[in-house]
Amino acid sequence: MNAAKDDFRLLEIGDTEYYGGRMTATFFERRFELYGAWYEGASRLQSIRDKDGNVIVEAQDPPRERGHTDLLGARLDFTDDYADPRRGIRLDVTRTHTPPRGSGSDYYAMDYSATAYLPIGKRSTWAFNVLRSDAVVTRQGETDPAALQQELGVNCSTIADPAQQAFCNEVIANRVAENTYGTATTLGGFSRLRSFPQGRYKGSHTLFFGTEFRWNLTEERTPFDIFVMKDIRTAIQLALFYETGATSDTRSDVTQRQNMRDSYGVGLRIVTASGVVFRADVGHGDDGTDTAIFIGYPWEL
């Protein structure tokens, strides 16, 4: 979490595929849900690049790693509207298991999320979310840097530039940390810490707090048919949000305020009768300003 704005490396991945599915069983008029998902993918490391996209080192004959993730969860929903809640509380507990990929660790992550909705006047809602995510390693993966370099097809010692060699070693050190501690829910992207790139911060423990004021500018039932989108618009919504959170491989570090990163911004949404929410957010934080266009409310992923 102490990384500066430009303190990151890029991994060029190729030969990729990704697929999966999700099933949900609902009970008591969607007050209680059980859900499960399974995702599988494969990829091959091609190169390590600096923040400007310049090649630091190219992988030599790297293996194509394949792995999968399975997810089980439960939800209690005590809100007034499942798709567009304005009052009540929603609780989620999720267990995500990631078996070893290559020489990686065998671990699972437990997520606990609570979202509360407080009505403000006739049209507005003030939403609050807290997330705690913890990875539990059942078997550590490979932690020898030399062995990991050989597996990935890179050799950091052959890089002449000391700064770039340090960048390469940092990538290997991150892989060692992943194989030692596992990875909890990441921060950054469309759902949490929206001013930061997707997956900007990760570690074996995550703590997140978010609040969002949602002001429905209109309440209507207006049909629309735009290219491939056809639905009934029920509201146009303006949102103001503030988020803060931390990730760390040490449990106690995520609760310390100095380790947290902040994000704040504004969003515009179109809420439809089918339950789909079209969302555009502009967030600002330590890394600058970022824009996201997505489907669905934040904090749901």
Automatic annotation (TrEMBL):
Keywords: Membrane
InterPro entries: Bac_surfAg_D15
Protein name in UniProt: Bacterial surface antigen (D15) domain-containing protein
Superkingdom of origin organism: Bacteria
Subcellular locations according to the entry: Membrane
Keyword Membrane: yes
Membrane-spanning residues: none
A Gene Ontology cellular-component term: outer membrane
One Pfam family, short name: Omp85
Stretches assigned to the Bacterial surface antigen (D15) domain: 73-275
